[in-house]
Amino acid sequence: MQNQATKRTVLKSLFAVVAMFGFGFAMVPLYDVFCDITGLNGKTSGRYDASLVEEHIVDAERQVRVQFVTQNNENMPWEFRPVDYQVSVHPGAMIAVDFYAKNPTSKPMVAQAVPSLSPSEGTDFFHKTECFCFNRQVLKPGEEVLMPLRFVVDESLPEHLGTLTLSYTLFDQTETLAPEDLEQALQQAAL
């Protein structure tokens, strides 16, 4: 009788382990579906080929407002903000904006910006040809920079999307780099 109860407990435990593993494995696609439904965490695409911008037709009859929001991860001491907090754009036109960053510390630091676009439905229509988020940013102590963003809003953006909000979170990557990688990043920044 006790042997039977032990077998049942072992089987239930094994089932629970397999179910937890399966749920953990399914979390990534479930999270993507959740984000699509709610409009959260609009992952932007990578670099868009600048030569393709010439193929876009500028829609001079329509304007879309693009807002810029920045925030620092809790461990990031940099000053980080858009130079312009919003711009009005004609879909199909190449737009250039800058973001300001300053390292107020007494040590060199490496940062990585992670973008997100809301509503997420707009991510397929927002194309970055140049972005500081494509590479790590290295700043010397006290250094200030303007970091460029060049983008085009696709003219096929659905009509009901009149405002897009591009958000950047800035993360400190200094401690995550191996010493030789940090040294290499600092040398490249000095060029």
How would you describe this protein?
By secondary structure, this protein is of the alpha+beta class. It folds into two domains: 1-38; 50-190, Ctag/Cox11 (Pfam 04442), CATH 2.60.370. It contains two helices and nine strands; from the N terminus they run αβββββββββα. It has helices at residues 2-38, 179-190; strands at residues 64-72, 79-82, 86-89, 94-102, 109-118, 126-131, 137-139, 144-153, 163-172. The strands form two sheets. Strands 3-1-9-5-7 form a five-stranded mixed sheet. Strands 2-4-8-6 form a four-stranded antiparallel sheet, with no helix packed on it. The radius of gyration is 23 Å and the shape is flat.
Main sheet: which strands, in order across?
Answer: 3-1-9-5-7
What gap, in angstroms, lies between the N and C termini? 77 Å
In total, the number of domains comes to 2
Which oligomeric state applies?
single chain
- The CATH architecture name of the largest domain reads Sandwich
Low-confidence stretches: none
